[in-house]
């Protein structure tokens, strides 16, 4: 990230309305700011801290939907330029409503956090796991060879299936997830909507075939839609598809 210009005069922190920003940083444990209040380094740290907060899911610490969508856009650009295979996985906790109904929302939240931990443990540093809805997660896996996709999706599903979640004094819970996945079409500029729709279709298939399973779309190229061909040959504008 580029630093503030050297010539910028120090700001008077009293003249800036930073109370709420500083309070948010403090609440999220990011209040050890470098430099003197008002200095460029200090202001940059405030901005960086706020950017970090706005891209994280507060319950799990994973990337949130906003950060996920930005990463999806970047990945689509990369795949269109490099032709590298990239996989998008969508995950949904099975029968999660029952967990909330039987054990309450606090236990439900613990389950969501446990799933997030499993996800983070199963993927490479270059992958982006995100919580994109209540009990819905997604993972963007750049440069993921087709032969590896099913393996990584199954690894995640099994890790979650094997996890014993403890809550309170004696509650021990097991849960499962359904996983759907789709590759971005290579050498074609797709859209986030089309890519997520494909992965979502596979997730829907995993749910309807009995849950606790992974369904991946058969690998790319032949799956390029009419809209994506339109984007490739310049007959469709990306905005038309949103
Ligand atoms: N504890 C907790 N519950 C949440 C949160 N966000 C959404 N939920 C709950 O998640 C549940 C989702 O239930 P459904 O969409 O019916 O899905 P499901 O029971 O998981 O069933 P299937 O997806 O069909 O297997 C609802 O009861 C929501 O209230 C959250 O942040 N914390």
UniProtKB/TrEMBL annotation:
The UniProt catalytic activity note for this protein reads: 2 GTP = 3',3'-c-di-GMP + 2 diphosphate
CDD domains for the chain = GGDEF
Q: Give the source's domain of life in one word.
A: Bacteria
Alphabetical list of PROSITE patterns matching this protein: GGDEF (PS50887)
Q: Where is the GGDEF domain?
A: 84-219
Q: What is its EC number?
A: 2.7.7.65
Q: What is this protein called?
A: diguanylate cyclase
SMART domains xref list: GGDEF (SM00267)
